[in-house]
Structure formats: C-alpha cells, structure tokens
Amino acid sequence: MRSYDTMIDDILKECTNKMKSALAVYESDLQGIRGGRASPSLVDRLTIDYYGTPTTLKQLATVSTPEPMQIMIRPYDKSALKSIEKAIRESDIHITPAVDGDIIRLNMPALTRERRQELVKLVHKRMEDARVAIRNIRRHANDDTKEFEKEKLVSEDEAKRGQDEIQKLTDKYISEIESLGERKEKEILEV
Fold first, then answer.
1. CATH architecture of 40-107
2. What pairs with residue 77 in β-bridges?
3. Where are the beta strands (DSSP E) in 30-148?
4. Which of 62, 108, 134, 181 could bridge to 127 as Cys pair (CB 3.0-4.6 Å)?
5. CB 126 within 8 A of CB 30
6. Fold held by 4-32+112-189
7. CA-CA distance, 18 to 137, in Å (whole number)?
8. Which residues contact 29 (CB under 8 A, 6 or more apart)?
9. How confident is the model over 82-124, as pLDDT tens digits?
10. Among positive and negative, which fits the CA dihedral 49, 50, 55, 59?
C-alpha cells in the first residue's frame, strides 16, 4: 500500500501543475489584450494562412516596436506579406495595416475612454474565468482526496491536511491572477 505522503503529494503535484498551466493561459490571454502602448504580443499569436498551413505570425516574421505607438512586422519570406496583411485585416485587433515596401506597419490609434473601459471589462472577465479554472482544479483535487479517504487509503487527518495544502495553492494562484489583472488594468488606463 502506498503511503499518505506519496498519494497526497501526487495530488498536490498534479494540482500545482494544472494551476500553473491555467495561470500561463491567463497570462497569454492578457498579452493579447491591447494596453496603452504598442506591444508585439498583440499580434504574435495571429494565425496566418502560409501556403495552406496555419502558421503563427512570430514564425513568419520579426515583430518589433520602433515607436511607442507602432508595431513593425518584417516577414522572413517576402511572399508572405499579403497573407500577413490579410490576417491582420480580418483579426479582432481593429488596426489597419500599412504596407511599406517589405514591411508592415501598424500605427496604434489612441484608445478612447469607452474603448479603455471595454478592455478593462474584458480583463475582468478573463480574470474571473481564470479564477473559476483554479477553483475547478481545487474541487477536483479535493474530490480525489475525499475519495482516498473514503477508500481508507488515507486517514481523515491526512485528507484534511491535503485539503488545507490544496487551499493554500488555490489562494496563491488566485492572488497571482488578481495581481496580473490589476497590472494589465493599470496599463490599459495609462494615458
């Protein structure tokens, strides 16, 4: 029979890994939300139809910000220029690309107050989605712990200690989610 330490530790490791993944997804989502300045992460994840294969922009081009309100895209393959331009036009970033020879420039318009408020609402929605994901991971980990207790694989005290550790992990990751969200909100509201 396996000992308490390894059974509960396995649950805690799995819980930690899933929470880290949920946090990484949330962080990636936030990078795709436009702040007050130009950021390559706004377009990095755009999918381009490159010779019939869906390919991310960062695999096809160098993306930089030569000015605070401008993104410059320089394709490695000049023939990809039109596909990249088309993907940007069809995306939800609401910026018209300007082709300048072999490069594409995205001039970021200043955000209106209404647009900033919409983006802040979006950040709050994503924050709540991430919190729900963390809580679901906690619920599943607690269910596993209770199942072990019910099957007499761990004692009541051991199960309780495991659930306390799971709650500490939950609190830690929710706190990280909130601080990332607050930072993004500040970035959006920065004029």
1. 2-Layer Sandwich (3.30)
2. none
3. 47-50, 53-56, 61-67, 70-75, 97-100, 103-107
4. 181
5. yes
6. Topoisomerase I; Chain A, domain 4 (1.10.132)
7. 7
8. 126, 130
9. 999 998 888 877 788 999 889 999 888 777 888 888 889 989 9
10. negative
- The answer to whether the CB of 181 falls within 8 A of the CB of 124 is yes
- The domain limits of the chain are 4-32+112-189, 40-107
Measure Cα distances from 89 to 51, 74, 85 in Å: 18, 16, 6
- For the CA atoms of the chain, what is the radius of gyration? 22
Sign of CA dihedral 119, 121, 125, 126: positive
Beta bridge partners of residue 75, listed in sequence order: 61
At 191, is the pLDDT very low, low, confident or very high (cuts 50, 70, 90)?
Answer: low
Whole-angstrom distance, CA of residue 145 vs CA of residue 156: 10
Q: How far apart are the first and last CA of the chain?
A: 61
Locate 95 and state its tokens.
């910026």
CB 41 within 8 A of CB 191: no
pLDDT tens-digit map of 56-78: 888 899 998 888 888 999 999 88
Query: Which amino acid type is present at position 109?
Result: P
Distance, CA of 84 to CA of 76 (rounded, Å): 11
| Residue count (the chain) | 191
**Hey, how many other C-beta atoms are within 10 angstroms of the C-beta on 130?**
25
Q: Which two tokens stand for residue 169?
A: 């992990």
